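#lab-general

N.A. 3:47 PM
ok so I finally got the sequence cleaned up, no stray characters, all 148 residues accounted for. can someone with queue access submit it? mine expired

B.Y. 3:52 PM
send it over

N.A. 3:53 PM
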Amino acid sequence: MKIGLAADHGGFELKGVIASYLTSQGYAVQDFGAHTLDSSDDYPDLVTPLARAVASGEVERGVAVCGSGVGAAIVANKVAGVRAALIHDHFSAHQGVEDDDMNMICLGGRITGNEAAKEFVKAFLEARFTGAERHRRRLDKVLRLEKE
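B.Y. 4:20 PM
back already:
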């Protein structure tokens, strides 16, 4: 599975931890930046290319990190085809995929610890959409909304 990563200065350090973890677990990683720590960078410039790669299928799933994770989630969800959520717990990391076909998670580099981030990423990547009728029905409504 090919995983895309992106982070601004607020998530730069945690992105490095996640990249190392993913590589150690055998995942292919595409890093959309930032590639250097720059306190004046802007999360939309880094998260948008990742979100577009997720939507196009260039990467199967994405992980975006900014200071709180909120900005990354807002930007990611502006790209049609992306279903991103700010993750603070193990359950949401896998349930979002299982029920909502989530394809991108957002984390807060200033609030999510390294070990928790690894746990959330692992749960996210190991989860699969169940395809249950009620979940497909709800997802179809979301996809229609995207086209409006």
